[in-house]
Amino acid sequence: MSEDDGEDWFERALREDSDSTTDESGDDGPDADSDSATDDGPDADQASADSPFEEDFAGAVENAPDIDEEPASDDSPFEEDFASAFENAPDIGDAPDGESGEDLFSGGGPSGGEQAAEPFDDDAEFDSEIERIDLGIDGLDNMILGGVPKRSLISIVGSAGTGKTTFGLQFLDEALSNGNRGVYLTLEEAASRIYDTAEEKGWPFRQYADEGRLAVVHLDPVEMANSLASIRNDLPELIEEFGADRLVLDSVSLLEMMYDRPSDRRSEVFQFSKSLKEAGVTTLVTSEASSDTPYASRYGIIEYLADAVFVLQYVRASDFQETRLAVEIQKIRDANHSRETKPYEITDEGLSVYRQANIF
User: Fold this and answer.
1) What is residue 272's predicted lDDT score, i.e. its pLDDT?
2) Domain named KaiC: which ranges (predicted)?
């Protein structure tokens, strides 16, 4: 990769981020001056001058060393690595008595029918040397014993309208509100729209950006497709230079859609996920659900690469009188968690899970 290539995709994204915050923030509240389109209030005045990308991220790109792209055959996640892992895998005994697929879901409704046994106890002690973090989702954090392991790759799978973007913003705000740093990469929404959505929920993302602790970067899918190798190679160093604690990518589905061949899609998503893990940052990626089932992503790839998978879905009663939203934790590596499916709501303060309630 040449130095100009790095500047090309990142400077373009930064310029759009800076322009969008400046152009848009004049409509955001009573501080705006109705007589002047350029008097945008204190947040927008500092958006360009104090942008965390202008000095830190852009400088990191400029000073990043050239990285030669590896041959496609060496990048394949399904050849030598997978074969070696299979060959060296230890013997695994049968599952403990009493465990079955029925334990994955809780039954019962308002009539008080029987429910599947629930082994989870959120009051139990959890002894582990793995550093853990909270997601920042009310009720959902209580369903995870000890928290999600730090530096995990977290996947949020759901259909349109289930709150995937809100989940990502809330996850990022949990770190930012505690004085940490975060990066939000969006392939779908403009940076200005991300700021608006966050502030509608009471999360001061523009203030975080002015303080140099948040970077919201919009990457055009076409631009990303043309510069994917460059972006993938640069991201770990850029994230480290910025000092990010959490990163959100919304959404990985657009990345997957760039490839027609399944083998190319698997390899590129694997390599991109690997680069995020190498950055040493806790990462959350959103993914569209499959049209065939709400329990899998569109291409069925990211949930196998992720360390934790959360499924957001619609649940409709048999009488069709009410449609509810429900969350299920499919897996979290190195963590005990509830396997019940619980209802949640998207409120003006974000997602809230009702872990004491049943779906119907």
Assistant:
1) 86
2) 131-360
Residue 60 is inside which H or E element, if any? helix 58-63
Cα separation, 159 vs 247, whole angstroms:
21
- The domain segmentation of the chain, as residue ranges, is 124-353
Q: Is 199 exposed, middle or buried (0-12, 13-18, 19+ CB in 10 A)?
A: middle
Which run of H or of E encompasses 188? none
240 residue type, one letter: E
> Residues 215, 251: contact at Cβ < 8 Å?
no
Tokens matching residue 325? 């939203």
Predicted structure pTM score: 0.67
Instruction: Provide CB contacts within 8 A for 107, sequence distance 6+.
Output: 113, 114, 115, 116
Find the length of the chain: 360
Please state, in angstroms and rounded to a whole number, the distance separating the CA atoms of residues 300 and 290. Answer: 8
- The pair of three-digit structure tokens given for residue 57, joined into one six-digit string: 């991220």
Q: Is the pLDDT of residue 111 over 70?
A: no
Domain 124-353 fold is Rossmann fold (3.40.50)
- The string of pLDDT tens digits covering residues 141-183 is 999 988 999 999 999 999 999 999 999 999 999 999 999 999 9
- For 88-138, give the DSSP string: TPPP--PPPTT--GGGGS----TT----------TTS----SS-EE----B
% helix / strand / coil in the chain, to the nearest 5? Answer: 40, 20, 40
Give the pLDDT score at 259.
Answer: 82
Exposure string over 51-73, b if 16+ CB within 10 A, otherwise e: bbbbebbbebbeebeeeeeeeee
**If you average pLDDT over residues 198-203, what whole number do you get?**
96
Amino acid present at 140: L
Task: Compute the chain's Rg from CA coordinates.
Answer: 22
- Tell which residue, 352, 293, 304, 257, has the closest CA to residue 158: 293
Phi/psi of residue 48, nearest 5 degrees: -80, -45
Q: Using CA atoms, how far apart are residues 246 and 338, in angstroms rounded to an integer?
A: 24
The candidate with the shortest Cα–Cα distance to 217, out of 258, 264, 182, 256, is: 182
- 282 near 147, Cβ under 8 Å? no
d(CA 311, CA 308): 10
